[in-house]
């Protein structure tokens, strides 16, 4: 009986072994050698568990159950210690028909010969200046046109008010002036001048040269009332602004300031023009601040007297003397520069636009913009230098050199009147700061153009 049981057990073992052999043989094909080895170890452990479960146990051996459990833990540990076989394709995937082998890839077309990148050429100063000028035109031209249009509209409203409010004062027609109009500035539509002509009777008024006044400054003039014995006070509508025997620029400005601040309905005018217009209340200057959604505009009003070929502005110097009139060369400057450029196809106006933009961009150079730059250019033109477009860079650098020299001496004579020193009102600190910046720019002009 025991033999029969053992024989049956061997037959079961033989059958189970055959099944395992077939399974392992197929696993080798499916999982590969490493995968089949792992599966064989796991199968062996499971087989041991099955054998212990089906084999008779000796009830008299108290350690049999404990031994069986310990061996089971060892077999389970063996199963857990086996490495997880690498992921293989599923049997369903293996049953699918194999795809035909992919054709060999076509030979890649020959790559075009590599062209070495040419480094970007550094621009010359001449090219940088022309590019800077072009950028100024592109950015500011449309804005400047709108600024002129808005300024003319405000000018018309102010003219109508003055004629209605002060019909007894023979003011002439207001007109625009300044860099926004003369083409010599930086083309920025942020500053404009309103020129208010004061019409004087030449038989009643005469000019006193500045060097004969108490300030001894040839750029300032006095306007004297004459023939009082024949034409007493009151014969001229401007006699109400006399201080002593002189037409006071300060008294006239104070009257106009009161009108601008207290009498004109700027909110209504601004609403009509789509702008916000405010007079400068605290300033001694006659100034309007205009804000529009497209730009901001600063308007300066100047009463102006034209006599004996001179243009005098009611812009007295700071100090106790308040009756003086400042001689302006603005109109003559713009006319002379345009005349010279037309004669030799020169680039003076381009050079001045770039220079004025440079001075606007550097706070230390603000006092150089406008007339001082124009007079330096006119002095160089009088010396016979070539101002053709191809010489723009050379003339630009030469203007910087001349400015440094004039600042060192503290004197820049006016082109139209060599007695007038255009640097006469600069402070020593301003001269030193401007001179230092310009001296550095002599070696590297690109510093002024905003380049590193």
Helix vs. strand class: alpha+beta
Radius of gyration: 49 Å
Residues in β-strands, percent: 5-15%
Largest sheet: 9 strands, mixed
Number of strands: 11
Helix content: 40-55%
How many alpha or pi helices? 12
Low-confidence segments, ≥5 residues, pLDDT <50? Answer: 1-12, 62-67, 76-89, 91-100, 115-119
Order of helices and strands: HHHHEHEEEEEHHEEEEEHHHHH
| Overall spatial form | extended
Q: Could you report the average pLDDT, rounded to the nearest whole number? A: 80
Explain this structure.
- This protein has 452 residues and is of the alpha+beta class.
- The protein has twelve helices and eleven strands.
- It has helices at residues 2-54, 63-81, 91-95, 125-165, 179-182, 249-263, 266-272, 330-344, 348-361, 371-382, 392-409, 428-443; strands spanning 175-177, 191-197, 205-208, 220-225, 242-243, 246-247, 276-279, 287-291, 296-307, 310-313, 325-327.
- The strands form two sheets. Strands 1, 2, 3, 4, 7, 8, 9, 10 and 11 form a nine-stranded mixed β-sheet that branches. Strands 5-6 form a two-stranded antiparallel sheet.
- β5 and β6 (246-247) form a beta hairpin.
Topology:
Elements lengths: L1 H53 L8 H19 L9 H5 L29 H41 L9 E3 L1 H4 L8 E7 L7 E4 L11 E6 L16 E2 L2 E2 L1 H15 L2 H7 L3 E4 L7 E5 L4 E12 L2 E4 L11 E3 L2 H15 L3 H14 L9 H12 L9 H18 L18 H16 L9
Parallel strand pairs: 2-9
Antiparallel strand pairs: 1-2, 3-4, 4-11, 5-6, 7-8, 8-9, 9-10, 10-11
């Amino acid at each position: 009986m025991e033999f029969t049981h053992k024989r049956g057990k061997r037959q079961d073992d033989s059958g189970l072994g055959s099944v395992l052999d077939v399974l392992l043989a197929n696993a080798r094909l499916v999982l590969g050698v490493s995968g089949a080895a792992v599966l064989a170890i796991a199968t062996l452990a499971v087989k041991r568990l099955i054998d212990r479960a089906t084999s008779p146990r000796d009830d008299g051996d108290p350690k049999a159950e404990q031994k069986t459990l310990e061996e089971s833990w060892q077999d389970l540990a063996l199963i857990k210690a086996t490495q997880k076989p690498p992921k293989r394709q599923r049997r369903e995937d293996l049953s699918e028909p194999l795809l035909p082998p992919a054709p060999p890839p076509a030979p890649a077309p020959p790559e075009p010969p590599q062209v070495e990148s040419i480094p970007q050429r550094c621009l010359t100063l001449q090219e940088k200046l022309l590019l800077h000028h072009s950028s100024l035109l592109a950015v500011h031209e449309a804005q400047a046109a709108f600024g002129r249009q808005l300024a003319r509209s405000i000018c018309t409203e102010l003219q109508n008010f003055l004629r209605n409010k002060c019909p007894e004062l023979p003011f002439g027609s207001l007109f625009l002036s300044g860099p926004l109009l003369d083409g010599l500035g930086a083309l920025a539509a942020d500053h404009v001048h309103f020129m208010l002509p004061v019409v004087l009777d030449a038989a009643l008024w005469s000019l006193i040269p500045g060097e004969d006044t108490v300030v001894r400054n040839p750029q300032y003039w006095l306007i004297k009332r004459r023939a009082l014995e024949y034409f007493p006070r009151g014969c001229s509508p401007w006699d109400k602004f006399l201080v002593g025997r002189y037409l006071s620029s300060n008294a006239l400005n104070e009257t106009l300031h009161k009108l601008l601040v207290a009498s004109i309905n700027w909110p209504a005018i601004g609403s009509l023009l789509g702008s916000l217009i405010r007079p400068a209340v605290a300033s001694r200057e006659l100034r309007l601040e205009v804000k529009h959604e497209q730009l901001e505009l600063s308007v300066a009003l100047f009463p102006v007297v034209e006599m004996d070929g001179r243009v005098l502005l009611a812009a007295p110097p700071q100090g106790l003397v308040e009756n003086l009139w400042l001689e302006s060369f603005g109109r003559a400057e713009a006319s002379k520069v345009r005349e010279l450029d037309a004669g030799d196809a020169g680039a003076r106006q381009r050079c001045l636009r770039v220079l004025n933009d440079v001075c606007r961009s550097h706070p230390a150079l603000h006092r150089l913009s406008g007339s001082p730059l124009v007079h330096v250019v006119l002095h160089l033109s009088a010396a016979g230098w070539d101002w053709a477009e191809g010489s723009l860079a050379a003339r630009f650098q030469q203007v910087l050199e001349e400015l440094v020299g004039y600042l060192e001496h503290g004197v820049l004579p006016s082109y139209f009147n060599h007695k007038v020193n255009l640097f006469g009102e600069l402070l020593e600190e301003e001269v030193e700061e401007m001179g230092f910046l310009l001296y550095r720019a002599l070696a590297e002009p690109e510093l002024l153009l905003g380049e590193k």
